[in-house]
Amino acid sequence: MYRPGANNTRVVVIDDHPLVSSGVCAAIAEIGLCAFTFDPQPQLEIDERDWATLDVPAAEVAVVDVTMGSDRDAGVRFVRWLTKAGIDCVVYTGSDDSMHWDACIASGASTVISKGRPIKDLVRAVEATVRGEVLTAVTHRAQAQTNYRQVEDHRRQQVSKFSTLTEREQVVLRLLCDGHNVRSIAEQGFVAESTVRTQVKSVLRKLDVSSQLEAVAMANGMERIGVFGAAQSTGRL
Predict the structure, then answer these.
(1) CA 124 to chain centre
(2) I want to staple 56 with a disulfide (CB 3.0 to 4.6 A). Which of 25, 85, 180, 190 is the partner?
């Protein structure tokens, strides 16, 4: 819904909470800018590689949330998509995760504003972005890019390790994540405990960890970014 202002600059607000996005639009409209909301959900349901075929919002500036639903990195993908189209992005987030902030800055965001701050701080950041002001120091942006590259390198290494797990090993790991022990897993799969122990040892070796707790922690981390979790706990061992 468009909220016309006196200035021709258009600001799109991308947030999965309608009340939040409407409130932000109203605050931005008060300073004379044209603000409108954009529903991110349909776009999040398709692969990011296909976003290049989509029309970008007709705006010069975007206000983007980071976490949308259970997708903790949705905003980062939107920032990449929008900045490639020449739209300046101001990130407005409830996340206090420094990795999220670094990812947004490294992906091209002008700045990141915490939702814990007054909305007037967000509006000021939007105003400054419209004026073309540099809101993130060059040194800060460079450090964010370095941090983000390191995190991405680590993530790729983790993903590579998980890709070596067989389907059966993924099922065993999923069951460990669900709180099952070796005996319970063996009973569910109608196999010997020794078979499950062998599979667990293989999982630990491939993930390069020394305990089931470490494997479960790694799996939970991968699940949060959508890498692990598809294997069904009812799968055949």
Answers:
(1) 25
(2) 85
Burial bucket for residue 235 (CB in 10 Å: 0-12, 13-18, 19+):
middle
Please give the DSSP secondary-structure letter assigned to residue 228.
Answer: S
Distances (CA, A) of 136 to 24, 67, 203: 22, 21, 43
pLDDT of residue 225: 57
Q: Which domains does the chain have, with CATH numbers?
A: 10-151 (3.40.50.2300), 164-224 (1.10.10.10)
pTM comes to 0.70
> Which residues, 6 or more positions from 158, have their beta carbon under 8 angstroms from its beta carbon?
218, 221, 222, 227
- Over 70: is that where the pLDDT of 2 sits? no
On whether the CB atoms of residues 125 and 113 are closer than 8 A, the answer is yes
Count of CA atoms in the C-beta half-sphere (13 A) of 89: 31
- 116-120 long-range contacts, Cβ below 8 Å, gap at least 24? 119/23, 119/24, 119/27, 120/27
Token couple for 216: 């479960």
Strands (E), the chain: 10-14, 34-38, 61-64, 88-93, 111-114
